[in-house]
């Protein structure tokens, strides 16, 4: 036994730790995210702007990790290529896609308290009663509200110059179908992946970063021969839910929701959502859609350009069907945070999967002493070459562990006086708080092995 962190003292001994509980109230997560630099309200010094959020130093790391995992899961396959299309597209794109005419939500207002609701999300009995669920005031008739943000290209604000901020990234993929297929010499079936911003003037944004007006999507459109679409749709459903499980999301919190005939979009032959159980209920995380040849057919019709694929072997031309997988990047990040959040009455920690955690390892000297600092720096520089790491010497060791727990750092490494004589360090595990003595020479390998096991 050394004088180091082996007996971990709670920084607040008056509080009693009980069994670990999940996140109950989104306000707790919003507060943690602000305090620790994951997510800040946008333009906060001006009082914020509704439903817009900024990612801070840890939030952007987490987001990059989410995107990197998604990108690698797609692009490491031989049959998927990437693109990064412009946000501003030719306005005819949105006529062809159906967004100008049909990307609308039915809006109802309360005449008394001015609350706004999406009629399709209100309880049928509430809608029929025409009474506001907030104050009992009278509700207006539903009005159709187009969700696309409009702007003008060039100096004159005439109708000829109207352009839209894209409400989805998918159209940038469809219009590039032949460019990608021919330049990358791909054969159907193959897919095109893209990560990028999308904008929707949502009627009822909210629940933190769940529904915002500016967000990022991670979309992959898979082009297949008609007739093989049902089989590919099933494959992508399984591949995508497995990806969320591999992010460490608990199985019991994920489920499929099949769109019934009333819910199916005009273009879709079949659609499943992957849903997650948030503190505010089961909600969509990702959509998997069999879009048939609707998109390529419409762009062919509106542009007057042939978008058919020529199958060299079968010597036949056809318009491919599209199986789409469409995930929200911000929503995936929110799920990672919500699912990882634990509180036991004393300690708060994020049980994040190591590949998502902003830092993988934190390295501390037990006390602020130059000889410990020197050793700590050596270990830190060594570990940093392999993992994203941080170091901290402010406050008691217990407090330092708690700070890292709250941001989901899987391992803490403490350098104490024994380290100087026998070259071993204490490794402390975030979730169990268990501690092990490990040779400093083998530290990197030790952490690598733990992560490999974590990944199953
Ligand atoms: P809803 O019906 O809830 O408005 P949707 O079915 O229109 O959503 P899609 O068009 O299928 O959503 O979008 C694909 C994914 O993009 C969603 O599963 C979600 O993760 C994400 N997404 C959509 N809208 C938003 C938003 N306003 N804020 C954050 N993410 C969003």
**CATH superfamily placement of the largest domain:** Bira Bifunctional Protein, Domain 2
Q: Count the strands? A: 23
User: Would you tell me the structural class of the helices and strands?
Assistant: alpha+beta
Q: How confident is the prediction overall: mean pLDDT?
A: 94
Number of domains: 3
* Cofactors, ions and other ligands in the entry: adenosine-5'-triphosphate
Query: Gap between N and C termini, in Å?
Result: 33 Å
What gyration radius follows from the Cα positions, in whole Å? 26 Å
- Looking at the overall shape, the CATH architecture of the largest domain is 2-Layer Sandwich
- Approximately how much beta-strand content do the residues carry? 25-35%
The fold-level CATH name of the largest domain is BirA Bifunctional Protein, domain 2
The dominant shape is globular
Q: Major beta sheet, specifics?
A: 7 strands, mixed
Our count of helices gives 14
Observed structural traits:
456 residues; alpha+beta; BirA Bifunctional Protein, domain 2; Rossmann fold; 7-stranded mixed β-sheet; 5-stranded mixed β-sheet; 31% helix; globular; disordered N terminus; binds adenosine-5'-triphosphate
């Amino acid at each position: 036994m050394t004088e180091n962190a082996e007996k971990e003292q709670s920084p607040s001994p008056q509080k009693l730790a009980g069994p670990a509980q999940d996140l109950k109230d989104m306000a707790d997560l919003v507060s943690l995210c602000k305090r620790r630099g994951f997510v800040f309200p946008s333009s906060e010094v001006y009082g914020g702007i509704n439903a817009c959020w900024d990612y801070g130093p840890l939030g952007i790391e987490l987001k990059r990790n989410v995107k990197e995992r998604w990108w690698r899961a797609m692009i490491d396959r031989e049959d998927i290529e990437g693109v990064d299309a412009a946000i501003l597209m030719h306005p005819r794109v949105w006529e062809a896609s159906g967004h100008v005419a049909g990307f609308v939500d039915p809006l109802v207002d309360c005449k008394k308290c001015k609350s706004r609701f999406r009629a399709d999300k209100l309880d049928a009995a509430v809608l029929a009663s025409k009474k506001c669920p907030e104050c009992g005031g009278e509700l207006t008739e539903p009005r159709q509200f187009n969700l696309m943000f409009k702007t003008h290209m060039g100096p004159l604000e005439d109708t000829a110059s109207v352009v839209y901020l894209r409400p989805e990234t998918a159209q940038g993929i469809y219009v590039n179908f032949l460019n990608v297929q021919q330049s990358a010499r791909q054969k159907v079936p193959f897919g095109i992946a893209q990560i990028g911003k999308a904008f929707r003037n949502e009627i009822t944004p909210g629940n933190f970063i769940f529904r915002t007006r500016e967000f990022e999507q991670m979309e992959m459109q898979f082009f297949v021969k008609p007739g093989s679409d049902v089989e590919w749709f099933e494959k992508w459903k399984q591949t995508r839910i497995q990806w969320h499980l591999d992010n460490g999301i608990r199985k019991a919190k994920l489920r499929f929701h099949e769109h019934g005939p009333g819910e199916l979009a005009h273009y879709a032959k079949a659609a499943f959502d992957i849903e997650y159980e948030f503190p505010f209920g089961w909600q969509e995380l990702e959509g998997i859609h069999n879009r048939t040849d609707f998109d390529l057919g419409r762009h062919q019709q509106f542009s007057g350009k042939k978008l058919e694929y020529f199958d060299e072997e079968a010597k036949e031309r056809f318009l491919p069907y599209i199986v789409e997988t469409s995930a929200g990047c911000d929503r995936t990040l929110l799920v990672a945070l919500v699912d990882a959040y634990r509180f036991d009455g004393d300690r708060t920690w994020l049980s994040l999967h190591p590949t998502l955690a902003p830092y993988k390892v934190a390295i501390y000297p037990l006390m602020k002493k130059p000889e410990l600092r020197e050793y700590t720096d050596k270990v830190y520089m060594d570990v940093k070459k392999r993992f994203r790491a941080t170091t901290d010497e402010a406050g008691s060791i217990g407090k330092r562990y708690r700070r890292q727990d709250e941001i989901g750092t899987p391992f803490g490494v403490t350098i104490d006086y024994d380290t100087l004589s026998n070259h071993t360090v204490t490794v402390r595990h975030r979730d169990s708080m268990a501690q092990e003595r490990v040779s400093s020479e083998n530290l990197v390998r030790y952490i690598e092995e733990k992560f490999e096991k974590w990944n199953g």
